[in-house]
C-alpha cells in the first residue's frame, strides 16, 4: 500500500514575490516623486536662465541706464509669467555702470534674475517648500550706438 502525501494547508509558492512587491512599491513611488521634483527644479532653473538672457538683451538695446533697468525688469517678469513659473518673489538686478563709457569703446550690461520658486504642490516629505534660483547674463552694448 502506497501512501499519498498529505496536501499542505498553506502553500507558500510566490510569497517571496508578493513580499518583494510590497516592500519595493513605496521605494519606487518615492524614487519617481524625487525624479519629478528634480525635473521641475531643472525646468525652473532653465526658465530663470531664459529670463536673464532676455532681460540682458533688452537692456542692451536701451539708450539710457534708467530705461535699461525698466525694460530688463519688465522683460524678466514677462518671461517668468509666460513660462508659468510661480515665484514667491522675483528680484532683477541690472548693472548699467557701462552706460557711462563713451561710444566707440566696448561696454556691457549685466542682469541677474533671482526667483524663489514655490514647490509646495509636490507635497514630498523632506522637500523644501521653495527653492532659490538665480541666473546672470551679460550682453554687449553696441559700441557705436549713442547712450547717456
What is the element layout, followed by pairings?
Blueprint: H1 15-60, H2 65-82, E1 87-95, E2 107-118, E3 130-141
Antiparallel strand pairs: 1-2, 2-3
Helix pairs in contact: 1-2
- Which class best fits the helix and strand makeup? alpha+beta
The radius of gyration over CA amounts to 28 Å
Secondary-structure element order, N to C: HHEEE
Total helices: the number is: 2
Number of strands: 3
Q: What distance separates the N and C termini?
A: 113 Å
The unreliable regions are none
Q: What is the share of helical residues?
A: 40-55%
Based on Cα principal axes, name the global outline: rod-shaped
The biggest beta sheet is recorded as:
3 strands, antiparallel
Mean pLDDT: 85
Strand content: 15-25%
Order of strands across the biggest sheet? 1-2-3
Description:
Helix 1 packs antiparallel against helix 2. The chain has a 3-stranded antiparallel sheet with strand order 1-2-3. It is 43% helix and 22% strand. The chain is rod-shaped and about 115 Å long. 25% of the residues are buried. It is built from 2 helices and 3 strands; from the N terminus they run H-H-E-E-E. The model has no long low-confidence stretch (mean pLDDT 85). The protein is an alpha+beta fold. The termini are far apart.
Comma- or semicolon-separated keywords:
148 residues
Outline:
The chain is of the alpha+beta class and 148 residues long.
Amino acid at each position: 500500500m502506497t501512501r499519498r502525501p498529505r496536501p499542505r494547508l498553506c502553500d507558500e509558492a510566490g510569497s517571496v514575490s508578493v513580499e518583494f512587491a510590497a516592500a519595493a512599491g513605496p521605494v519606487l513611488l518615492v524614487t519617481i516623486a524625487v525624479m519629478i521634483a528634480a525635473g521641475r527644479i531643472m525646468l525652473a532653473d532653465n526658465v530663470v536662465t531664459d529670463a536673464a538672457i532676455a532681460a540682458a538683451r533688452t537692456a542692451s538695446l536701451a539708450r539710457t541706464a534708467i530705461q535699461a533697468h525698466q525694460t530688463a525688469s519688465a522683460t524678466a517678469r514677462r518671461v517668468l509669467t509666460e513660462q508659468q513659473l510661480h515665484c514667491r518673489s522675483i528680484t532683477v538686478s541690472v548693472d548699467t555702470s557701462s552706460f557711462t563709457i563713451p561710444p566707440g569703446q566696448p561696454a556691457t550690461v549685466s542682469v541677474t534674475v533671482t526667483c524663489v520658486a514655490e514647490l509646495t504642490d509636490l507635497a514630498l516629505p523632506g522637500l523644501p517648500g521653495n527653492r532659490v534660483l538665480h541666473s546672470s547674463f551679460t550682453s554687449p552694448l553696441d559700441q557705436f550706438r549713442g547712450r547717456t
